[in-house]
């Protein structure tokens, strides 16, 4: 997702001006003048927040993370953003299983031999993962690691290799299944009941890290900002009126075309998560194979090409819900999000048609009806 600045205020005033010329009623002109004066008054009354935010981008958890903060004191803002990134790198050291020295890599090496005690942070991610596993009927499964490794969509794409064989997929699936994960809540330990199991928290770790970073920003007095982990974002507080607030304008990419599929106008503390088949995939003989796998079949999920969830109780939950709904596909995933999870959703089905939950409309600024058109 991307945060888009509002068009320049002068453009708004020009539009108001044009309307004025068409309108001959003096009373309307006076009314508009009062509205403009009030608008300018609000802007002048908010001198603390700069119109231009402080923004920094770093590569964390395999994606570009952008932190945007509107603040009063530049050096305090910079220190807060520094600390938020330090926290993100700390979570990466815990949850990025591709780093051999990470905590999760250690768990994956050792948990088949016996219970392994984990940190509070990893425990929270595993617990949320198990909750979404149960809530989604197994569509979301943090033990999907053996399948992710077998499919290795980026590697196969680079080498031009075909998809794995049915036998390889069947073999990998034997080591997949969160029901084979033994979690001891009192001892905070994890054990694998089957050899070859691999935990992969890629479906929710960014959302989890997002909340940790936002917590650091808040604890340092930052009240207005936007944290974007590309696929999971959070609006923090209101956007300053001097910068076109109070709403945040968030754009979702078109999964098949150039530009945007939708733009939202969102209030404070709103999570937006997208899962799609268009960022990590390879193509072989005209078929696309992407990185979100259906643990129940062993193949990339086919029921949707993108899912955006707006809402959710926290970052990990919002991130995990979009992955789970993507696996469920259209219409099941959309209905599940609306009825059982109480979040709003924008889903592009396998043929490119856009579907929404009814409550999404009040948040939309613009929407294409079909992806790629
Ligand atoms: P992104 O990686 O773009 O944030 P998602 O949040 O949808 O996208 O997460 C996709 C990642 O989740 C995959 O790269 C993989 O690590 C993991 N994953 C793939 N399939 C599943 C699944 N069925 N359940 C849980 N996690 C999955
Ligand atoms: Mg996700």
Explain what this protein looks like in three dimensions.
The chain has a single domain (54-367), classed as ApbE-like domains (T-fold). It has eleven helices and 17 strands. The chain has helices at residues 9-22, 26-44, 74-95, 103-110, 120-135, 145-151, 153-159, 166-174, 205-219, 315-328, 332-341, and strands at residues 2-3, 54-60, 63-69, 116-117, 181-184, 189-192, 225-228, 232-236, 248-253, 260-266, 270-276, 281-284, 287-290, 304-310, 344-349, 354-356, 364-367. The protein has an eight-stranded antiparallel sheet. A four-stranded antiparallel sheet has the order 1-9-10-17, with no helix packed on it. A hairpin with a 3-residue loop joins β7 and β8 (232-236). α10 packs antiparallel against α11. The longest helix is centred in the N-terminal third of the chain and has 22 residues, at 74-95. Bound molecules: adenosine-5'-diphosphate (ADP) and magnesium ion. The site of adenosine-5'-diphosphate (ADP) has 20 residues, from α10.
């Amino acid at each position: 997702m991307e945060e888009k600045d509002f068009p320049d205020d002068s453009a708004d005033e020009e539009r108001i001006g044009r309307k004025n010329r068409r309108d001959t009623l003096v009373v309307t002109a006076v009314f508009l003048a009062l509205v403009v004066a009030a608008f300018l008054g609000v802007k002048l009354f908010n001198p603390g927040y700069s119109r231009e935010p402080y923004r920094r981008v770093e590569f964390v958890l395999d994606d570009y993370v952008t932190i945007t903060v509107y603040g009063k004191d530049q050096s305090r803002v910079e220190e807060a953003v520094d600390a938020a990134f330090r926290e993100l790198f700390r979570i990466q050291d815990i949850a990025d299983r591709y780093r051999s020295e990470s905590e999760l890599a250690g768990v994956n090496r050792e948990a088949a031999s016996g219970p392994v005690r984990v940190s509070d942070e990893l425990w929270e991610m595993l617990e949320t993962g198990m909750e979404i596993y149960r809530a989604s009927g197994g569509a979301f499964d943090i033990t999907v690691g053996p399948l992710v490794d077998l499919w290795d969509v980026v590697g196969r794409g680079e080498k031009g290799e075909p998809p794995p064989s049915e036998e390889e997929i069947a073999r990998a699936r034997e080591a997949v299944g969160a029901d084979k994960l033994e979690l001891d809540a009192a001892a905070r330990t994890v054990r694998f009941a089957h050899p070859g199991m691999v935990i992969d928290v890629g479906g929710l770790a960014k959302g989890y890290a997002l909340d940790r970073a936002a917590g650091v920003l808040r604890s340092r007095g930052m009240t207005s900002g936007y944290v974007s982990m590309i696929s999971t974002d959070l609006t923090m507080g209101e956007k300053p009126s001097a910068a076109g607030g109070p709403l945040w304008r968030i754009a979702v990419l078109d999964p098949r075309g150039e530009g945007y599929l939708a733009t939202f106008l969102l209030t404070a503390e709103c999570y937006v998560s997208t899962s799609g088949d268009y960022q990590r995939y390879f193509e072989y003989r005209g078929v696309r194979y992407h990185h979100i796998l259906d643990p129940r079949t062993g193949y990339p999920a086919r029921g949707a090409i993108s899912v955006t969830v707006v809402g959710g109780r926290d970052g990990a939950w919002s991130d995990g819900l979009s992955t789970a709904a993507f696996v469920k596909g259209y219409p099941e995933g959309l209905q599940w999000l609306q009825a059982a999870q109480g979040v709003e959703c924008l889903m592009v089905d396998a043929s490119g048609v856009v579907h929404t939950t009814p409550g999404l409309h009040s948040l939309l600024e613009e929407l294409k009806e079909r992806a790629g058109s």
